[in-house]
Fold this protein.
Amino acid sequence: LITAIGVLSSSIDNFLGTTMQVQFMRENNGKRSHCGKKTAYYGGLRLFNNDIANFITAVSVGLLATIFIII
C-alpha cells in the first residue's frame, strides 16, 4: 500500500508539473529555465507554481490514502 501511494504521489506531481505548472524560458538561448536569470513566460498557469503543485499532490494523496485505509 505504501509503495502504491508513493507511485501515485509521484505520478500526480509529474502530471501537474508538466500540464499546469508555470514554465519560463530563457530569452537569450530558448532553454526552459528557472535559475534566476532573465526569463519570459513560456506556458502553464501563471499562479500555479511548484509549491501549489506539491500542496495539491499532498492533499489529494493524503485523502486517497485515508480512503484506502478506511476501506
